[in-house]
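Revision sheet: structure tokens.
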Amino acid sequence: MRDGTLLLPFLVLCNGCTAMLPSAQTDSSTFASFDEARLAVEVLVPMQSNWHLIEVGNLNPANHPNATHLTQADIVRKFFVPNTMLTRDDLDPGVLTCVAARGNCSGIELIISKITKSRTGGFFKDVTNFSRRTETTGWRFSATILMVDDLVVYRAWGGQPWVNELEVTHNPLGPLQDMNFSGIVKP
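Predicted:
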């Protein structure tokens, strides 16, 4: 009887202990917000801006862990998709200028984000795997900048300015839900 009286207060206390649930944060950006990253790219004017403005705008790939240096071959693969209805006339003039420059053509692809995942359901239901509630918030940003030598010839950006996702998982069997019963012999 004594064990039962200790278990009930523990379960009541743990049901509201969301602070004890796991959380995770992904931060691959030196920018504070999606708009700050967007503005840094929009400042670049094709056929006018140079590498110095990329440095000043904090777009140097050395400052971003998920940056990719693009070669001319990468750019051709990215923009010239075989078997599509797109023609050369459909492509931006900056892309065509870069590809025509061959070895002098290079680019930067930035994929940056600030994402937070928090488990927000009840502690007991989460720990015993009966119910899990995960909230994901933040933003994701991507940009492509093409250059010929030191001159920016093309820039584009995209992404998700606001990420707000809710994942709720219910497991009626709780901790038994993920058990592997393959070793049980069937009659």
